[in-house]
Design brief:
Length: about 500
């Protein structure tokens, strides 16, 4: 492209990135599944460091050096200047800006002539992984693209400084998400092995392999420790069978976020676009009008096989298949970028990607407005809760994005919550102190819907009173035995002091 066209194309790219910020900045709370939990725990870490009562009595730092620290660390630093839920929004906006720009940087490192292919990334910004609130994984994706670009820039001029820098960057990927670290090593490893067999001189490639292994050694040691330590733990998620995985493959399942039936048509359009590009490349390769795109085809094939056959839950982690599927599409994008795709195909694929992404933007904005109202209504209870209180949240909502909504109230007034999925998981910064785990005191059904909790057990077991109970979206027709027992305890030991504007949230304070 000419310099003038390059200028306009760059401005257009900037404009698209800014537009993609709108669903986040136009609401007060951008609600995701796990996002409120990450926001609360970043605030909770600061409370524990400050030795605040309740927080430091109930929670403690995980004694193991676990991953999933990057997102928390960023929000802790932001919390020094902003309220926690504003810090969350800044983190989200940073990700939305960084993802397309990191991919664009990688495209320039691989093949600047295919800069149009950078627009393929836009529909993947608001992926299922983001709406699930997997912030550390999303940060890992940005680092994946950025560090891969760094490797490509320096792989032929490696020295001690490069290796040390690369080792630190790989450590950062690991502490964002270990699975992304594995996929990064697999990506670079396949590229190096492919070059060893199909490029000369081999001695240079052997040297690169040795240096890359040296750079990965610290992070790889941590990964092996993590796997061995958590090998007996199992994520309680559902397995996905082969027929369903094939269906998800042709629907581009990572793009389906909130409502399956409403979104699958548009995600399928992206899947068709990708597979048309694959067919175009294969035809060119068969006719010997194009090279195979270095190792891109092999990486895509390995990711595809891994997606079809790797278990969905392993080493205390879940949602493995959709993560691999997302990276399968990323690997296809890298293959496209490294290949000679006709200009009209690049332009067509870019136009489709932009149109699909803009549709998802307006769709997500409309859905997020409703979730924002729910979050604000839940958050309104904080004015009724005294500073330093111990709070038991109970959710009866059938909306899966409400599961951790209560966590936002724990980001103010030093409010300590007795429901915290991170503390119950083995791979996050915080865990319960011995004898303080409500899941052990109340039973595992405490986390079910409807929840099951014998409130009378908590004080004898811990020596602490539950100051407030919050009930979210309770309905009178719920009459199971657990709910009846909870209602009885609320009548006997608590006073209802607040009902939110739409009646969805109720606050009960312990009787004096």
């Amino acid at each position: 492209m000419s310099n003038q066209k390059n200028k306009y194309e760059t401005l257009f790219f900037f404009l698209l990135v800014i537009i993609h910020l709108l669903p986040v900045i136009m609401v007060e709370f951008f609600v995701t599944l796990d996002g409120p939990g990450h926001t609360y725990n970043s605030s909770l870490i600061m409370q524990i460091i400050a030795n605040k009562p309740n927080a430091s009595d109930i929670y403690q730092f995980n004694s193991d050096l676990m991953p999933n620290w990057t997102g928390h660390t960023i929000m802790i630093l932001l919390n020094l200047f902003f309220t926690p839920h504003v810090s969350e929004k800044i983190l989200l906006c940073s990700y939305i800006i960084a993802l397309p720009f990191s991919f664009r940087m990688l495209v320039r490192s691989i093949n600047p002539q295919n800069i149009r292919m950078t627009y393929l990334i836009f529909p993947f910004i608001y992926s299922f992984l983001l709406h699930a609130g997997f912030y550390n994984f999303c940060i890992g994706i940005v680092l994946f693209f950025s560090v891969f670009a760094y490797w490509l820039k320096n792989e032929n001029t490696l020295n001690r400084k490069n290796i040390f820098t690369l080792s630190l960057l790989l450590m950062l990927i690991y502490f964002s998400h270990p699975f992304v670290f594995v996929l990064f090593c697999l990506t670079v490893g396949i590229r190096l092995v492919y070059a060893y067999f199909f490029s000369v001189p081999r001695s240079a490639n052997i040297h690169k392999i040795k240096l890359f292994l040296a750079a990965t050694l610290p992070s790889l040691s941590l990964l092996l420790y993590f796997i061995m330590d958590k090998s007996n733990e199992k994520f309680p998620g559902e397995e996905i069978y082969l027929a369903e995985r094939i269906k998800h493959l042709f629907l581009c399942r990572p793009l389906i976020t909130l409502i399956y039936d409403e979104e699958k048509v548009f995600s399928a359009v992206m899947a068709v676009t990708f597979f048309l590009l694959v067919i175009c490349l294969l035809v060119q390769i068969i006719r010997r009008k194009a090279a195979a795109g270095e190792s891109g085809w092999l990486l895509s094939l390995i990711f595809l096989i891994a997606y079809l056959f790797v278990p969905n839950n392993m080493a205390s982690g879940g949602f493995i298949s959709i993560r691999i599927l997302l990276f399968f599409y990323f690997s296809l994008m890298l293959w496209f970028v490294s290949s000679a795709i006709p200009l009209f195909m690049q332009t067509g694929a870019s136009v489709v990607s932009i149109c699909v992404s803009l549709w998802f933007l307006q769709y997500h904005h409309s859905k997020m407005k409703d979730l924002d109202q729910d979050a604000k209504e839940y958050f309104s209870v904080t004015k009724e809760i005294k500073n330093g209180s111990l709070v038991l949240p109970l959710s009866y909502s059938d909306n899966w994005l409400h599961i951790n909504l209560y966590s936002y109230i724990g980001t103010v007034k030093n409010i300590t919550l007795l429901d915290n999925y991170e503390a119950e998981s083995p791979h996050f910064p915080l865990t319960w102190k011995k004898g303080m785990n409500p899941y052990e005191i109340f039973g595992k059904s405490f986390g079910d819907n409807p929840p099951c909790a014998d409130i009378d057990k908590f004080e004898p077991a811990t020596g602490k009173k539950i100051d407030y109970v919050i009930r979210w979206r309770y309905r009178n027709e719920i009459n199971d035995s657990c709910t009846l027992e909870i209602n009885k305890a609320l009548v006997e030991k608590y006073d209802r002091i607040f009902v939110s504007a739409a009646g969805k949230a109720e606050v009960f304070q312990i009787k004096k």
